[in-house]
């Protein structure tokens, strides 16, 4: 395997090579290649987002982040259905991520919640049919980032252009990489496989309802950047409750570590704004995680009672 070929390996492939290394020299070589890959990836990401910032304004740098995220994920991941239909869905997802977060910000928290539920329903039901692809970590995260960093006026017009360019790039890369793959299912199959009793559909409904409700509550409580609570909730909701309990425990440990770091920053930092921002981030994270767990426990309990009847 050449140096370039090893650079193309994913994280699992690189770790597998490290495990199979028989000598210190061989292991050192694979570590070097892995570190070079990380450095090249970081440089590319920085350059990509910088170019978007230059072209569409600093306030739209988040567009570069969302587009980059979609490109890196959907060059390998798929939607589980015919490539042509998947490509059209990706284009639709970009339209939703461009329009709906902006409109939701113009409405009251409750009306915005209803629009967010409708938007996330399309993204999750048609883009996250296979939970183990973790497409929600791309589509829902992208939606929430654009929601949290909304713009108006000329900046929003530039955002429209940037997202259109991002949609074209993502669809092109996705179709090129998947056009020769054979898929037995199509869009109609996704609709027919919607089953309220299945673990997948329950997980989808939890994502669709819980994340917008978290955003709404955070906004009603006047929390700035309510998206962080939504992101915490999104990342916590998993298809199986056992996995979710494990994830929540890990997040709680992370939050404890965050509180410790915050305490250090609080006493070291003289900037009152920074202290307030850090404390709010910790509060939003804890709220999103705890609310998501409570919501899913109640939802699954309600569904089990309904099934028992």
Structure description:
It contains 13 helices and no strands. It has helices at residues 3-7, 11-20, 24-56, 61-74, 83-106, 109-127, 136-148, 153-178, 187-192, 199-220, 227-236, 241-268, 272-308. It starts with a helix and ends with a helix. The mean pLDDT is 85.
Number of strands: 0
Helix segment count?
13
Helix fraction bin: over 70%
Q: Percent of residues in beta strands?
A: under 5%
Q: What global shape is seen?
A: globular
Which structural class best describes the helix and strand composition? mainly alpha
What does the main sheet amount to?
Answer: none
Describe the protein's topology.
Blueprint (H helix, E strand, L loop, with lengths): L2 H5 L3 H10 L3 H33 L4 H14 L8 H24 L2 H19 L8 H13 L4 H26 L8 H6 L6 H22 L6 H10 L4 H28 L3 H37 L1
What does this entry show, briefly?
This protein has 309 residues and is mostly helical. Helix content is 80%, strand content 0%. The N and C termini lie far apart (60 Å).
Structure characteristics:
globular, 13 helices, 309 residues, single chain, mainly alpha
